[in-house]
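Feature request disguised as a bug report, sorry. It would help if multi-protein outputs had a clear separator. Right now it looks like this:
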Amino acid sequence: MENMKKVMVQFDFPGMTVKEYDQIWQDLRAAGYENPKGLIHHAGAPTNKGVKVVDVWENADKFNEFGQALMPILNKHGVKEPNPEILPLHYEYKIF
């Protein structure tokens, strides 16, 4: 049975530039993932070490399905496989 609890997923991509991040999104869009199924929110920000990504997904299963499309694109760009932190979402505040 599919886990229906929303999750927050955090990634750190050490050494990644925003240009590389933008190119990965361009490749995801070209592969048909402009709006990945199950993704509710996505944010990416440069840090002093690379790029941090924080997502909210409908559930962990949807995130894992997307990972099957994401990993080949990350590999294409020489990005080391990330070690995401997947946390059950406790609270979500929507303004819109």
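(second protein starts here, but nothing in the output says so)
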Amino acid sequence: MQKKLNIGLLIVIFILLAVPFVVPNSFYLDLAIRMAINAMIVLGLNLLIGFAGQISLGHAGFLGIGAYASAVLPTHFGWHPLLAMLGGCVITGILAALVARPIFKLKGHYLAMATLGLGIIINITLRNEAQWTGGPDGMPVPPMSLFGTEIYSDKTWYWIVAALLVIAVWASQNLIDSPFGRALRALHGSEVASQVVGVNVVRYKVSIFVLSAVFASLMGSITAHYIGFVSPNFADFFHSIELVTMVVVGGMASVFGSLVGAVLLTALPQALTSFEGWETVVFGAILMGFMIFLPKGIVPTLAAKFGKGE
């Protein structure tokens, strides 16, 4: 298992190293950066949904907290961007820990509705606190600064997110193979059986929810600094659904499925622009096709078909 996973990680590293030398222009480099950012968000979300079996329909709210922390704290309070990014992760982690215990007393569609409500509350707060957030119009984000140098170059940003993606994949693999990861898989299989063998169900649910939320917050900050602007759309319901769709299409409980789902669904809208007004219809039809013919997601279904476990 570990050998196969390491080979997969090497393939990811090779692809990331090759991308800047094969993309024809800055548009495709920008697309690659967005793919990598989405892949890291989906990795964290897949740990929650795919491995622990806990649904979240409001995850974009945590993304929005991180993004706005990197905008509000430097703009209004003079914080360094790195400190603001850390502050966003801490705020997100505390919020996630506070709401996780009452939320995870629920199951099934009740849990889904509770997480959806949390995301909507965050989105409404960002829209209404206009004196701090700029309201529905959003606000600019100060540039990221490292060692006294401000980062503007797309190539520099690419290498930053590529390095973070490699770390995220490696960390996810090791987490899944750890006792913590085995407890998550047991939790997904049966909460009652997990309790019988000594797994603290509540603690593991809260821990993975907080970890996944902090993943999203960190990537929200990275996205905000890269784009240079934030708006409440970062935290809206449709963005949450898009992230969940990436998890499902790529493959739940699959590290590399997270990458495939993020890459595919980030690139697909760009590939469908030639349909001029029918993009959404074609996009929906493609997603239906994936779910009909690849019901477990792309990577797990193909792995099962060719007789190879991930």
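Even a blank line would do. Unrelated, but nice: Residues 1-5 have pLDDT under 50 and may be disordered.
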